[in-house]
Amino acid sequence: MGRNKYPEETVAKILDAALELFCAQGYEGTSIQDIVDRLDGMTKGAVYHHFKSKEEIFNAAFDRAMAPIVERRRATLGAGNMTGAQKLKRLYAPESVVPQIELWARMHPAADPVKSSRLLAMQYQGSFDESADGCLLPVIEEGIADGSIACKCPREAAEAVSLLANLWLLPLFRPLETKDRMLARAQCLAQMAAAVGLDLGNEVLQTTAQIWDVWNRAGW
Amino acid sequence: MGRNKYPEETVAKILDAALELFCAQGYEGTSIQDIVDRLDGMTKGAVYHHFKSKEEIFNAAFDRAMAPIVERRRATLGAGNMTGAQKLKRLYAPESVVPQIELWARMHPAADPVKSSRLLAMQYQGSFDESADGCLLPVIEEGIADGSIACKCPREAAEAVSLLANLWLLPLFRPLETKDRMLARAQCLAQMAAAVGLDLGNEVLQTTAQIWDVWNRAGW
DNA sequence: TCATTAAATACATACTAATGGTATGTATAG
DNA sequence: CTATACATACCATTAGTATGTATTTAATGA
Questions:
Q1: I want to staple A131 with a disulfide (CB 3.0 to 4.6 A). Which of A14, A158, A176, B40 is the partner?
Q2: With a threshold of 0.85, does the pTM exceed it?
């Protein structure tokens, strides 16, 4: 086969297949050939034409999946003139969180930290980035500036809350038995956050309940 | 070469080499051949005679390294008739924590979450085990039973504190710039723990300072 | 505006080096 | 004599590369 008129479609197909496989089987558990086998007719040549390594495929696949969510969250924060405290609450409101959970739910990563170790590492790293470069820390600092938040250690609080929210509250890499236990985690997290000056809002419990429902809905 | 009189020495050599390499280069970054090359004269046959897979070597290496530390910690808790609250504080006292840090410091894992993703996953998993089967949750429940601790969500509190202590306070997989920032994390963690009824004690700051010194001492 | 050509692109095919693991051989301890 | 502790030789799979080829796109010229 010669040149294709719409290479973006090929790229999209590759990334779709890759994302699903990486989630289901982990990074090491997914071979390039596995991906190729899902791209009927296509061969490794196509893959290595568009991406220079497995690593790059992995990153591209997840960046692409996350992009609209990140964008959306950024948009909800930019609009309107809210105080920092209000923005903080909105960060943990259902409208900000649920879309991301739906993405994860579609992928349904293996509930085994070792098998999902690379995804886990990404979420781990991402938690720090989220607090530093992302939304959380800026929002907190905004709240401190406008007087709506009283937090003595904004950076530390942001990191801790991000980590707990991403790796503990969300049952991505470990099974979580009951909705009640998830709600207990949420309440616990809210209390701990409050102790360092961060009011995540009453909606957190509601958000968590929705997360549970999305995560465990029928069809999985 | 035929049969060796002291095969345990061979096993020990393999595990020593493996532990160092796994820490420095990560799991995927370390090949069996890398390990073999450090065992002068020995070959892959020896390795696969004593261990049936790379995975098993990895687990054995870390189990062996952790064993004395776990044992020691268990011992300090068993002895004496302390209240749960006192035991909790002791769990985060220098004498309980520093030996573990010294082990980690000797290994000096790569400060890159992705490269160290398998170790990260182990620590992650370990944080839950620590709270469930390990020391933390039992100690908290003991404290609740004897009235020295007032905690409404012992399991959740234990998990959250474990996670933060293992993956955030300890700068295993991410560089941490200054001692002050590490102390800030410790203080933040202590505040958050206090909010859910866990008093980690005043020694936490002291412990943290010692951890920093051990971790960043000259010679590294 | 349209045919011609040159160049860049989108793949397919065939191959390589390294890796985890196995099968088997052999010398020594018990 | 048998089980063990290795060494040697080998295999299948893997990420990645080198190269070949058809087609699209851009440049050119009338």
A1: A158
A2: yes
